[in-house]
Amino acid sequence: TLALFNEVQLPRPEQMLDSYPHQLSGGQKQRVMIAMAISCQPNILIADEPTTALDVTVQKTILQLLKKLQLERQMSMMFITHDLGVMAEIADRVLVMYKGKIVEQGTVQEIFANPKHPYTKGLLACRPPLDRKLRALPTIKDFMEVDNSGNLVEAKKSVAEVIRELEMPAGNLEIRKEKLYTQNPVLQVQNLQTYFPVRKGIFGKVTGYVKAVDDVSFDVFPGEVLGLVGESGCGKTTLGRSILRLIEPTSGNIIFDGTDIRALGNGDLRRMRKNMQIIFQDPYSSLNPRMTIGSAILEPMQVHRLHENDKSRKAKVLELLDRVGLPSKVYNRYPHEFSGGQRQRVSIARALAVEPKFIICDESVSALDVSVQAQVLNLLNELRDELGLTYIFISHDLGVVKFMSDRMVVMNAGKIEEMGNAEEIYFNPKNEYTRKLIDAIPKGEIIHI
After folding, report:
1. Structure pTM?
2. Which residues, 6 or more positions from 267, have their beta carbon under 8 angstroms from its beta carbon?
3. Which of 148, 288, 307, 400 is deepest in the core (most CB within 10 A)?
């Protein structure tokens, strides 16, 4: 076992032997699973979405490890993923499946240079491009539709043509910046610290502190999307939850609309939370399995006493379902009847139910495949423009953050490493840590294959 742990490059292998899963990071758990899989000397290794929940730097190390093991052990590997950018990093041949059938296959070069099937084109186009700014992301519907008879109707467009049509005109970004940054900030975070005590011994003596958020300051302006990016464990989620006081900060100020949130009592904080909402990472655990979708969206309106009665609240729920692209017939259905993308749409509708001004999107697309991710990101941008919403968009995926954000904050070990215009940070990073994050992004472009 120790030899296997060394082979998969686990740190401190002797200590890992006596550790429990909850004590390991996501990347370490994945290395343990790889060690288990290769312990039987297999001829073929099936890797089912092995990097989906990992941040880009950990993902890169896992991909390198799998490649190394495959070459050293001379084993075949079937790598299953929804992200063709990742596929480009590791595969020799690609098979594309749609509704249980293989619709296209070929070498990586053939698939990326000249995709034939519209579904393949859609998968390639859905990933946020890194070299340009788009108004909206392409979706599968830009390349194909399914008619009432179930037949596939192809739109005769190439990936490059669709992306060109969606490209943002050069002057639009400057106009948007000018409009955003002449306003007063809606949120001011000043010297925020959130520390967790480390306790040891039977009496729980405090021996130190984990500085999850360590002296962080920034402003957010009305209508802005501020991206928050960094590796897993860098403090992104803790910062988001500290802003809403879902986790109590240790010190610092959080000023929202001129009110110091840290000074509010429970009643005032509840009223303030009507204006500040969060969309959680996991659409599978953030909805109560015993509540229908309609009840889950209606409940926040009851808590905040919005609308006259439950009849008018139900009408609002149906309006919200329509707005997030779900039919009214789903009102009485339960969460287990929905896909991940549909559940995340329900979570967005629930956040919108109390008519907030400000929403924290905490890794809200990381559990979704790229085609569904594109739809949800487009929806969030449409809602921002229509309802005048302000977002903090938290993600470990720098490509997604670059597409969504006006400005970007790069976090590492609880501190801000770099902050500025999203395009500027991507094309001209000042910090070595930021450059490392950018280098780890799977490019998925033919010149890199």
Report:
1. 0.85
2. none
3. 400
